[in-house]
Amino acid sequence: ILVCQPKNAAAEAPCARRILTGLLRRAWRRDVTAAEAAPFLASYAKARATRNFAGAISIALRDILVSPDFLFRLEFDAKGAKPGQVYRVSDFELASRLSFLLWSSIPDDRLLNLAAGGRLRDPAILDREARRMMADAKADALAFLDSDFSFEPYGLVLPRDDPDFRLLVNRTLV
Question: Distance between CA 61 and CA 66 in Å, rounded?
């Protein structure tokens, strides 16, 4: 969490900004504007008056962890979309959907960086990232394929460890 340690009082505010904007990006699963980060930086500054640096960061972190953008995966209709109209989700929404589907968790920095660059929607990149994620130990969250959808009584054993099989199943579920 503490990706930097200020050496003196003058370095505290820039370090707090770096820590909190990084935490917000991960927690909210998207890039965060300066205006969106401002209340959390103000929370840090207020707490810093009575706490040490780490203690003030922990107060701002508490506020991040109870923010609606962290607690809920908020998605909004595209601007100008009519009710029932199909539209492409944003790259950040795609990153969140993919990571929660495959990992039951938030997107990692690599996925967020691709989303920020608008590159995640490229089919080749999306396929590469899905395969990377399926090969990761976090994809073991897909164990529900064996437990919730048990096929063993029917004589079928699912090749759960095969990334191509996992990818096929998840494409089907999407």
Answer: 9
